[in-house]
Design brief:
By secondary structure, this protein is an alpha/beta fold. It has 2 domains: 6-56 and 363-391, Urease, subunit C, domain 1; 59-352, Metal-dependent hydrolases (TIM Barrel). The chain has helices spanning 77-91, 105-120, 157-166, 182-191, 206-213, 240-245, 263-273, 323-333, 338-344, 347-352, and strands at 6-15, 18-28, 31-36, 46-49, 54-57, 59-64, 66-67, 70-71, 93-101, 128-129, 132-135, 170-175, 195-198, 216-219, 230-232, 235-237, 251-255, 278-281, 301-304, 307-310, 316-318, 370-373, 379-384, 387-391. Strands 6, 9, 10, 11, 12, 13, 14, 17 and 18 form a 9-stranded parallel beta sheet that branches. Strands 1, 2, 3, 4, 5, 22, 23 and 24 form an 8-stranded mixed beta sheet that branches.
Length: 403
């Protein structure tokens, strides 16, 4: 129940200002009530000794296609709930923005209805569904990647206006700004409070600057399905990537599996942009949080080398990670400090999505979205809006720290 008082004690708490060791955190009425280093008794409170493990804000995934054997593209409430539950339990994701890949319009319409249902469900078994991310259909076929090229086309004004007027759950929409009508789309969608993102694009230079002016404020799976510096008529030209680096107010997201973007480039992006401009995402497919390793999506996609690929191996189609694994990749492989890796999965995506007044940090009065993970980044406990979803803290001392 959200009104149950829970106190976590003997933890290493990750706060916006640093780490508190041997500290406690009190939850009351679904909110964070107190954070400190004293472990005094509080009447009528469930006490959980976290035994020196990390206490962190719950992770926020703003780009995820499925998990636990379910895909959001199935466009049913059951699929939404199953996938959101898998990422919550296995990965510590407490806030989730289901992502719909390129698909026929009727699938989008059904997904919108399914999202509405999932958004109304109490967060007792799953991550809080905060809204929908449409990754399509306004993408450049030259950079289709794992998207279905048959479903890609330039923005249709009547379509997107109708979709955005008719519902209130679309929170993100990814598009290629160089397509005809894409700047008008960006202006309209951003005016409706939608985060408009560059994606599957060859835009560069002035096109990226024009996109920013038209409301594009974010870059979807940075480095993937976009151009880098290249030769054109014998001369070097900047690509999408360099143009985004130069757009000082644009945020990006990185798929944190170490495969979509190699660790050295993850480190480079962090050194240039800092944790405040990077959101970690999983871009996960239905195999995340599942033991299924066979062909999926009717054989169109295979799981190989720790990632989803198109069956002909021509493109990466998505990841199979949960968010705790993205944290592990950033710390262990990319050498990012733990506090900044956690920030990229909590405070930064909350700020990007405009929910940082409620979520993304352990501060008094914020939603009690709290997780406990060990020194190997395994999720032990999950609390969503004050509800204890899972608690698997083992007896004995925590694993020795490597961070």
């Amino acid at each position: 129940m959200a009104n149950t008082r829970i106190k976590l004690i003997n933890g290493i708490i990750i706060t916006p200002t640093g780490i508190l060791r041997g500290a406690s955190l009190l939850i009351s009425g679904g909110k964070i009530a107190e954070i400190g280093i004293r472990n005094a008794d509080v009447p009528n409170t469930q006490v959980i000794d976290v035994k020196g493990n990390y206490i962190s804000p719950g992770f926020i995934d703003i780009h995820v296609h499925g998990g636990g054997g379910a895909d959001f593209l199935e466009a049913t409430p059951e699929a939404f709930i199953r996938a959101a539950g898998a990422h919550c339990i296995h990965g510590g994701t407490t806030t989730i923005y289901p992502t719909i890949a390129a698909a026929p319009r009727e699938v989008f319409d059904r997904a919108i209805q399914a999202c509405h249902v999932a958004m109304q469900r109490p967060s007792d078994t799953l991550a809080h569904v905060m809204g929908l991310h449409l990754e399509g259909n306004y993408l450049n076929p030259l950079m289709c990647g794992g998207q279905d090229p048959a479903c890609l086309y330039p923005p249709h004004e009547d379509e997107y206006r109708d979709m955005l007027r008719a519902n209130h759950c679309i929170r993100r929409w990814s598009a290629a700004p160089e397509l005809e009508g894409a700047l008008d789309f960006g202006r309209y969608a951003s005016s409706r409070g939608v985060l408009v993102s560059l994606a599957h694009t060859v835009a560069a230079g002035q096109q990226v600057r024009d996109a920013f002016d038209a409301g594009y404020r974010h870059a979807t799976h940075f480095y993937n399905a976009m151009t880098g510096v290249h030769r054109e008529n014998g001369f070097k030209r900047e690509g999408t990537i360099e143009s985004i680096y130069l757009a000082d107010e644009m945020s990006v997201e990185l798929v944190g599996d170490g495969i979509h973007v190699p660790p050295a480039i993850l480190r480079l992006a962090y050194k240039i942009l800092g944790a405040e401009r990077i959101a970690l995402v999983t871009d996960a497919m239905l195999a995340a949080g599942s033991s299924d390793t066979g062909p999926i999506y009717g054989g169109r996609v295979i799981i190989e080398d720790g990632v989803c690929k198109l069956a002909d191996r021509s493109a990466i189609a998505g990841s199979i990670i949960t968010m705790n694994e993205a944290i592990r990749t950033m710390v262990v492989q990319a050498g990012v400090p733990l506090t900044d890796a956690v920030r990229m999965a909590t405070e930064t995506p909350a700020t990007i999505m405009g929910i940082n007044h409620r979520k993304g940090s352990l501060l008094r009065g914020r939603d009690a979205d709290v997780i406990v993970f060990d020194h190997s980044y395994n999720v032990l406990s999950v609390i969503v809006e004050g509800r204890l979803i899972a608690n698997n803290i083992p007896d004995g001392d925590p694993t020795s720290s490597d961070s």
